[in-house]
Specification:
- This protein has eleven helices and five strands, in the order E-H-E-H-H-H-E-H-E-H-H-H-H-E-H-H.
- By secondary structure, it is an alpha/beta fold.
- It has two domains: 206 residues, Rossmann fold; 49 residues.
- It has a five-stranded parallel β-sheet, sandwiched between helices.
Length: 272
């Protein structure tokens, strides 16, 4: 939340798998990599919920397929889906992509892995705030008439299944970050795994990518206020859609009742 979907750029080369757990500076990394790699980044949280209809559907397919890859054909289909999502992007990050690092490495063997991290207590405090915004009962109801938001419930159930398959727990809980980071140490070759905190600024990130430090301020994205503004936009848009739908329904039933009364009166006149 707190950021608009990005668009692919023809010819962009996929270079970086952002493997940090949500709320570890992934949105800041998104902006920094866009500058350093001269191309758009695919924030999987943003794109899978608010991107193009192709991206939304494909992410749902990816999350459904991942836990049940049993054959070579399944793996090849997964590779195809992942490449179709990241074609035209220089990097990806956030969940659900961070949950699928081994699968993305298989599709892009030359990409490096940059895992953003932060102190556990501050991460969980931020994560609980985000969960409170996104996991309430009424959000799916409010946005149900918004075309792109109709998959919120489906997204949630598939991500829960994905998390349970990968980490043994549904959704993102307090221990998930530590479990996820240990998982990365086990599945990513040490020479390809780079740990990074956005508080460190340009220098270590540029060293990882082997690029010069740019002459621009280091970005900072997705503060708590920005996330809340994004949530508010969803609520306002959803409320507006409900007003429109209820207005149409009121108009329909009003004129339907008039028509039925006219039909009834004509029937009575004929009987007389």
């Amino acid at each position: 939340m707190g950021q608009l979907p990005s668009k692919p750029k023809k010819g962009a080369k996929f270079r970086v798998i952002g493997a940090g757990m949500c709320r570890t500076g992934t949105k800041t990394l998104n902006e920094a990599l866009s500058i350093l790699c001269d191309g758009p980044c695919h924030d999987s949280g943003i794109q899978s919920l608010g991107g193009s209809l192709h991206e939304i559907k494909t992410w749902l397919d990816v999350m459904e397929l991942a836990p049940r890859q049993n054959t070579k054909e399944d793996e090849e289909h997964m590779d195809y889906l992942i490449r179709s999502l990241f074609d035209g992007y220089v990097a990806t990050m956030d969940c659900p992509a961070a949950t699928l690092v081994p699968e993305i490495m298989r599709a892009y063997p030359d990409a490096i892995v940059v895992a953003t991290t932060r102190e556990q207590a501050s991460w969980w405090k931020s994560m609980k705030h985000m969960n409170g915004l996104m996991s309430n009962w009424y959000l799916p109801v409010v946005v149900m008439w918004l075309r792109k938001a109709q998959g919120y419930g489906q997204w949630g159930s598939r991500f829960q299944a994905l998390s349970k398959w990968r980490y043994g727990s549904e959704g993102i809980r307090e221990p998930t970050k530590a479990i996820h980071e240990e998982h990365l140490r086990q599945v990513v070759p040490p020479e390809k795994l780079h740990w990074y905190s956005v508080s460190q600024g340009w220098e270590p990130l540029c060293k990882i990518l082997n690029v010069p430090i740019p002459d621009v301020p280091f970005p900072h994205n997705n503060s708590k206020l920005e996330a809340e503004k994004s949530w508010q936009r969803h609520i306002i848009s959803g409320a507006g859609s409900w007003i429109f739908v209820l207005g149409i329904m009121t108009w329909f039933f009003y004129y339907a009742s008039i028509w039925m009364n006219e039909v009834s009166e004509e029937g009575e006149a004929i009987e007389i």
